[in-house]
Amino acid sequence: MGIDRHLGSRLAVFVALGIAGVSHSSLAWAQQQAPASRVDEADDAQKQSLTQDIVVKGYRVDSTTSATGIVTSVLDTPMSVSAITDEFIRDTGASRLIDTIGSLSGVTGQSNSGETGVNFSARGFAVTPQIDGFNTLSVAGGLGSSVAVERIEVLKGPSAVFNGNVPPGGTINIIYKRPSYKPEAFVEATGGSWSYFSGQIFATGPLISDKVAYLVDAYYKDADGWVNYTGHKEKTFVGGLRIDPTDTLRIDLGYRRAEHNLRISTLPVSHEGYIGSNSPYGDTLDAWVARNFGPLEPPQTITVPQYLPAGRRDNPLGPQNYNLANLNLYSGGIHWSPNEHIEFRDTFMYQKYTWDLLVILQSGAKVIGADGRSGILSGLLAANIAGSGWENKLEAAAHFNTGGIEHETLIGYQLA
After folding, report:
1. Which residue, 104, 366, 409, 413, has fewest beta-carbon neighbours within 10 Å?
2. CA dist list (Å): 280 to 287, 319, 326
3. Counting Cβ atoms within 10 Å, is residue 141 exposed (0-12), middle (13-18) or buried (19+)?
């Protein structure tokens, strides 16, 4: 089976107006979270900016961009927004986003034993994450990695003004690290159970003082799963350039490549109480669970041991499985601030992926029916899926005051 997918063509024009009767002192506090475009960012923190990068302080993020499209204090954001920082990801030892994103209320992630890339949901609705505010392709397996992630912003609730036709549960925005003029470098290696090994080399800093900065991040992981014949290999490379020809002009270039090789498992699963419930034939597990426990209850909560004769580590698929995903992301942007009251930005992203799948399915490898017997699901599943897509945003942000009222305006278009 061969499938080719693309991001659908879309043109969106949006205008957002913000009015707040706050004092100038509180405005200055909020804008301190946006750094200037030089190594002496701390000295220039008073500069008002609507589109600059967010400063992350440990586990705390004081401002976000996902809700309004501009740098906005979390306290002033008229929607529920949460964030996870890179320091939190490192401290939890998470190499995958699903290992840490569940720490946010109302947000979950699962990998379905490696059978798919990564699935996320917000308030019970399936969500395809964004990257730096851009829509992504749902089967792009590289989205599951936490490599070079600066923070994850989660906007809960509808956000059609900025994100178009999105699920009502919310929006997940994965924001990657960008080159910095502050030098930083490290080499890291980790080992663990189930033959786990990972290594990472990271470096960022100036190439030309105050003019050009770079970022390089290379990551490798090889680990077996706790179920027999399962495992995960990952190779990720991230590169970026930041060019500041003048004090008011900035150019960003980025590239990310991720290769994932998953050896998967499909366990015999059910829900406690479903087996032996005498539910009529054809009444699916999902329907039974939703009817008896509600729509937010996960339908697959237990494994059925009699279908695992070799114990809980048994893999009904055996060693014959192949699941390879490759993802390439290219990004760029131009930011121009002619004065302190107006800024322009033009950002672009192109993504391309391939997903090759070969799995031998056996009876007893899927959901166990209410009569305690497995459904018939034997055969060969093979697929070759490929797709590509691009997206462009041109935006203008303005800030001005009329008396004691502060105005922040964002106008632009989004084309994909």
Report:
1. 413
2. 12, 35, 43
3. buried
Q: Tokens in use for 172? A: 């997940």
- Helix H segments across 242-295? 285-293
pLDDT in tens, 308-319: 667 767 766 666
- Of 164 and 126, the structure prediction assigns the larger pLDDT to 126
Q: What is the DSSP letter of 225?
A: -
**Structure-block tokens of residue 61:** 């993020």
Q: Is the pTM here over 0.70, yes or no?
A: yes
Q: What gap in Å lies between CA 355 and CA 141, rounded to an integer?
A: 8
CA distance 184 to 204: 5
3-class DSSP state for residue 332? Answer: strand
> CA-CA distance, 111 to 117, in Å (whole number)?
6
Instruction: Indicate the pLDDT class of residue 347, thresholds 50, 70 and 90.
Output: very high
Radius of gyration from C-alpha coordinates of the chain = 24
Cα(first)–Cα(last) distance of the chain, in Å? 27
| Cβ contacts of 309 within 8 Å, gap of 6 or more | none
Per the listing, tokens 């992504």 go with 136
Grouping H, G, I as helix, E, B as strand and the rest as coil, residue 35 is coil
- Please identify which residue in the block is written with the tokens 């302080």: 57
DSSP 8-class letter at 158: -
